[in-house]
Structures are given as C-alpha cells and as structure tokens.
Amino acid sequence: MSSHTADTQLKLIGKLVLEGELHCETGLHVGAGKGSLEIGGADNPVAKDAFGRPYVPGSSLRGRLRSLLEQASGLAVPGELIYLSRRKGQDVRIHQSDRPDDEVCLLFGRSPGRVERVQGGEALDGAAASPARLTVYDASLDLDSITAAMRDNLDDELTEVKSENAIDRITSQANPRTLERVPAGARFKVRMVVDILCEEDKALVARLVEAMRLLEDDTLGGGGSRGSGKVRFAGLKLVWRGRGFYAQGADEAELAQGASLADLQKTVAGDGFAARLSE
Fold this sequence. Notes:
The chain is an alpha+beta fold. It is built from six helices and 13 strands. The strands form four sheets. Strands 1, 2, 7, 8, 11, 12 and 13 form a seven-stranded antiparallel beta sheet that branches. The protein starts with 13 loop residues before the first strand and ends in a 10-residue tail after the last helix. The longest helix has 15 residues, at 58-72. α1 (58-72) crosses α4 (204-216) and α4 runs antiparallel to α6 (261-269).
C-alpha cells in the first residue's frame, strides 16, 4: 500500500529511464484495427509505422501492464471498475478510484471529470485526478532480429500469416480466418520513463517491474489463448536523471545495465535504491 495522502505535495525530483528489448518467444499480433485491411491481406493485420514496419504501440504495452497489475491487486472487480467508454457491444471498463494511496492510479494516472461506476451505476466525481507517473513509448522493431533465414519462411518481408479455423458445433462447417503476426525471434526496442514527483513515488517503481514480470508469464496482443503473444524482457538498462540533470547538466546515474527482469527487480527492491534517487 502506498504512503501517498491527499496532502502529498508534487514536485519533480527526477526521472527513471528504463530501456531494453522485448523478445517475441511466439508470434506476436498487436492489431491495427479494421480500418487498415488490404485486398488480399490478412483478416487481422498488425500495427505498422509509416515505413510499413511492425511496432508495438506504447498504448498497447502500457494498457496490458495496467490490466495485469489491476488483476494482481484484486482491482479488476465490478466494485473497483468504471466505464472508460460506453458503446453498444464495446464497453471498456478499467479500474479507477479516488483513493490517494491507489498505486495503480498513481502509476498510470487518474482521469478528471465524472465517470460511471460499473457496480451500482453511480457517478465518480474525479476530483482526485492525478498525473500519470509512467510513460511508455512506441516500441520499434529491431530489423536485425529478422534474419535472412527467417525471411525465407515468412509470408511477408517482416511478418507471417497464421491461419485458423472456427468450427460450427452443429454443422461442423469451418470458418477460416487469418492472423498476421510478427514472428518468434523478433525483438522490439522498449523505452519507459517514470516521473518521481515526491518521495512516496519511489515505491511505485517496484510495481512497474511486478507488472512486467506478470506479462512474461501472460500474453501481449491478440490470440494469446491460441498461442500468440508470449514475450520476454532482456538487456534492461535503468538510468536515474535527477532534477539537476535537467537544470544544471549534472551527470545521470546508471542503476542497472544489461540486466534481466529478475536482476532489475532485485535492484529496485534493494534497501539503498530509494536513497540513490536524489535531486
């Protein structure tokens, strides 16, 4: 439980910059939406940048980390959920509370304005709106990770197409569909930044690492229950940039280099970690 209170004062102490690699251990499908369908292409294409290269949107990675942390914290229940949007057949429900010590809301932000609770339908005022500490950037594809041997077996230059069948239980009629995926073995360059706005924020870093560890034993993107989306973090670098780095050009402090996620978790859980995050 966080030690934040309603009287906690926010002032930038510094920023933690986390960079590393996201390895695809199975094919990865982060969808582009129905608006990008191409004639003769897969039914479900992956998100691509302006150069036609697959990438992992920061919003997708951030949203998955948030949902896993909500589940692990017992917050993905009707009494803790609000409607982010309400459209017929497309309701989006996420956790949000007005508790000042709610670590999920502190890390990922709390939206202002009136929202509707899922349970009971009453309105939540949103007076306790708080800034997100975590920023997750779009993860670009490391083109060197797609080897020549891999390209020889891909359906496209950088992606594969997985064919699936849905079988009608009465008639046994097959309903084929295709899923575009980034192949196993691909790597993406990940970058996240955590703003430390008060002493109490230092404890939130451990919750981010917890969410990343949960993701490694879960899935990212679509088709997870059918074999897609197993990922792993590697080569992690954690750097601290205190306020002096931005105001006076002070040196940054390297806290981890080339670390695994397990090593990083030991670093942020260490007794002296918070003391190293000074202005």
